[in-house]
Design a protein that fits this description.
Pfam families: RHH_5
Protein name: CopG-like ribbon-helix-helix domain-containing protein
Radius of gyration: 17 Å
InterPro entries: RHH_5 (IPR012869), Ribbon_hlx_hlx (IPR010985)
Distance between the termini: 58 Å
Structural class: mainly alpha
Organism: Dulcicalothrix desertica PCC 7102
Strand content: under 5%
Order of helices and strands: HH
Shape: elongated
Length: about 60
């Protein structure tokens, strides 16, 4: 477990109750909290990108 990775580290501070929820969720998924949070961030960024692309208005003159 562990080892070198080309991934960047991001630190976030969350209330204890959120951390507990994340730990429980990660345990159910048999994953680490880090993996779970990375997937949540990835999904949020994909949704944001999708929203940005759908809100672009093509202006044809």
């Amino acid at each position: 477990m562990g080892g070198k990775t080309d991934l960047e580290r991001v630190v976030a501070y969350v209330p204890p109750e959120l951390k507990k929820e994340l730990e429980e969720w990660a345990k159910v998924e048999e994953r680490s909290v880090s993996w779970l949070v990375a997937k949540l961030i990835d999904k949020a960024l994909q949704e944001r990108c999708s929203q940005k692309n759908s809100s672009k208005v093509v202006n044809i003159h």
